[in-house]
Amino acid sequence: MTGQLRRSGIPPVGGMPWGTHFCLFFETAADLLETSIPYFVAGLEQRELCFWLYSEPLTEASITEAFERAMPGYASYRERGAIVLQPARAWYYREGVLDWPGLRAAWEKLTQESRQKGFAGLRIAGCNTWLEEEQWDTFQQYEQDFDDAASGMQMIVLCAYPLATTGAAGILDVAHSHELAIAKRKGVWDMVETPALRLKQLAQRNRQQFTIAELGQTAIRARELDTLLNEAATCAAETLGTGRSILWEVQPEQNCMFLRASAGWPELPLGATVPLEDASPALRAVQQDRPLVIADVANDTRFTKSWVLRNYGVASVLAAVIRGRERPWGLLSVHSMTPRTFSDDDTEFLQSMANVVALAIERDEHERAERGKEDERVRLLARMEALSRRLLLAQEEERRRLSIELHDQLGQILTAVKINIGSAPPRLGDAMENIDQAMQSVRDLALELRPSVLDDLGLGAALRSHADRFAQQAGLELHLSVEEIPRLDPPVATACFRVAQEALTNVARHASAKNVWLELHRASDAVELIVRDDGLGFDLDAASDRAVRGASLGLIGMQERVSFAAGALAIRTAPGRGTEVCARFPLRGAA
Predict the structure, then answer these.
(1) How far is residue 486's CA from residue 478's CA, in Å, rounded to a whole number?
(2) In what order do the strands lie in the sheet with 515-523?
(3) pTM value?
(4) CA 83 to CA 46: how far, in whole Å?
(5) Whole-angstrom Cα distance, residue 245 to residue 337?
(6) CB burial class (10 A; 0-12, 13-18, 19+) of residue 574?
(7) pLDDT tens digits for 543-589?
(8) Which terminus of the chain has a smaller tally of CB atoms within 10 A, N or C?
């Protein structure tokens, strides 16, 4: 999940989004307190409801004493109910049974109560020293189920396990069900990012891509526009897990939007309207022509709330613009009745759904206006088919590559670990070296999925790192000129990075170049990326025709990424004259 990052209070972790579920391995009570107290202090300072499920070696008295030393105003927070201390065993095992449905209902109720009381969200920590051996498997299954549920909720959760009694197999079990594993031993930090989050994101992305492809197929088959609009609303609500969605059409002459299709809204009739009044979320999205996220409708002071948001208690909203030929045609929005945030993948998915709807609307308007122009109708159909085919191919290629990487690298390394540990005597040194290799493989795979330096240090640093690594691997002379650029909106930074990545990949695959130039600079109110090589060049018109037919993914992929970020792409090339790719993005998202 993304959205505004919350301070964790834990130095090696930094900021984290809502929905984060991570674990701590500790040796001593001091290590546990030195991690948990700053974690909760950060939560209290950010208006979060803090819920501590404590267990031995800590007691309520020792926790209170530690809080009072670290936070002079602790007593007032406790009196206001901003922090709750409760024994862990009594919370999890009620009448001797760990009841996951009951626990999930309890967590959801606590989340709703935190919102009603004006808190920004939940911050939770649980110490699991109370677990007995026969309870381990059941509790780890609960951790897996909870990890799936927490990703869609307005909470941050830290689970603490003692190193002394967890064991090697237990550590692997725990790390598998958490996004991040940290350890503190005698004041020293260790941190390992697990593949669980990356794999979960990849599975969700694959599902989203499949849904977009299916909607594209529906757009090709269905001749009734209303059928497609209803399908788009239903798929958006189901895929993003909100349960509710509305597809609005803008009526600029009446300064309002009216409902064309919906899912999960039996209360709202077709034709219901909302005004496009000043400071409304809908007007902001339409004017800026880009997706809009409202993670906390009740407390977001940027906008005036429509009667739909106000009367029905909508907690979170994501809206994407359905673009028309001359102006925005409407909005595709999803609505959650409990607070949640939306990831960049979620935003891009909904915008892609809106883009498919926009193509279908364009086709429908064209057919109604010019029934006799059969060639134009075929062109639009071919465009829809190429889009659907390209999305399916991209999805399968990403799955295939990830499968090969996991099998060939991690599979072989883990087999070596098993052999080394199982030998007599165990070759622990070799096993540790194999584990280091496995961790590096996971880091490399995660870096390909999304480079962490892009989020941590920004676009310039990410481009320098990727270009240097690319030049070394490809054996090319790199000429790099990267200016300092203000922090950009994540979709713009991601689009710019991916265009550079695709352009450099094309140089390595096709150009037979000796030199490659990469430039990033600010030009007036825009940021401009240029990737140039002295290679073979190509016939741009012929390559564009192949891309339209779905035979080439690279060119259309770059064009769509730039378009999604409201930018412009220009490619200059000719056989024997090298190639230059220039992408220009508006700086409206600069911080």
Answers:
(1) 24
(2) 477-482, 515-523, 526-533, 579-586, 568-573
(3) 0.45
(4) 12
(5) 11
(6) exposed
(7) 877 765 555 556 777 887 788 788 899 999 999 999 999 999 988 64
(8) C
